[in-house]
Amino acid sequence: MKTRVYVTLKNGVLDPQGKAIHHALEGLGFSGVNDVRAGKLIELDLADNVGDADVEAMCRKLLANMVIENFRIERVADAAPAA
Amino acid sequence: MKTRVYVTLKNGVLDPQGKAIHHALEGLGFSGVNDVRAGKLIELDLADNVGDADVEAMCRKLLANMVIENFRIERVADAAPAA
């Protein structure tokens, strides 16, 4: 079973990567960009017996830094490709 | 207007970061993890006059490396938080 984990910085946490992307977009001439926040998308291919509690534990122990990041778990039907 | 861009590696492209996460999860004792693919989630806060074509151009020129990455653009209603 396919599961996606979205890891994003908590509000108020400085995002130097987002700032750099924002600056680069403006340098390329793109206007109308008010803010950019960079995060992580982790796609897990899991056995069917791996439950939500296990995935949550993976996030808390490894995938997200709970001090500065939030995470969101999304179970994906096999058919929907990420991109 | 809030827009999310999901950047993922194309199939077949080696993902060392995903491999490292996979290895670390197993080291922490998590079983049932068949594969891990790491990608990027970029949240853009855009002015209303920035159209889909502009966002696509941002992706092609900067946010995604078109040789090895795919991207998917998602327009977000203001209410839905990312995580």
Automatic annotation (TrEMBL), chains A, B:
It catalyses: N(2)-formyl-N(1)-(5-phospho-beta-D-ribosyl)glycinamide + L-glutamine + ATP + H2O = 2-formamido-N(1)-(5-O-phospho-beta-D-ribosyl)acetamidine + L-glutamate + ADP + phosphate + H(+). It comes from the Bacteria. NCBIfam families: phosphoribosylformylglycinamidine synthase subunit PurS (TIGR00302), PRK05974.1 (NF004630). This is Phosphoribosylformylglycinamidine synthase subunit PurS. GO terms for molecular function: phosphoribosylformylglycinamidine synthase activity. Belongs to the PurS family. Part of the phosphoribosylformylglycinamidine synthase complex involved in the purines biosynthetic pathway. Catalyzes the ATP-dependent conversion of formylglycinamide ribonucleotide (FGAR) and glutamine to yield formylglycinamidine ribonucleotide (FGAM) and glutamate. The FGAM synthase complex is composed of three subunits. PurQ produces an ammonia molecule by converting glutamine to glutamate. PurL transfers the ammonia molecule to FGAR to form FGAM in an ATP-dependent manner. InterPro entries: PurS, PurS-like_sf. It comes from Sphingosinicella rhizophila. HAMAP family: PurS. The lineage of its organism: Bacteria, Pseudomonadati, Pseudomonadota, Alphaproteobacteria, Sphingomonadales. Pathway: Purine metabolism; IMP biosynthesis via de novo pathway; 5-amino-1-(5-phospho-D-ribosyl)imidazole from N(2)-formyl-N(1)-(5-phospho-D-ribosyl)glycinamide: step 1/2. The gene is purS. SUPFAM superfamilies: PurS-like (SSF82697). Part of the FGAM synthase complex composed of 1 PurL, 1 PurQ and 2 PurS subunits. It is an enzyme of class 6 (ligase). PANTHER family: PHOSPHORIBOSYLFORMYLGLYCINAMIDINE SYNTHASE SUBUNIT PURS. Its EC number is 6.3.5.3. It is found in: Cytoplasm.
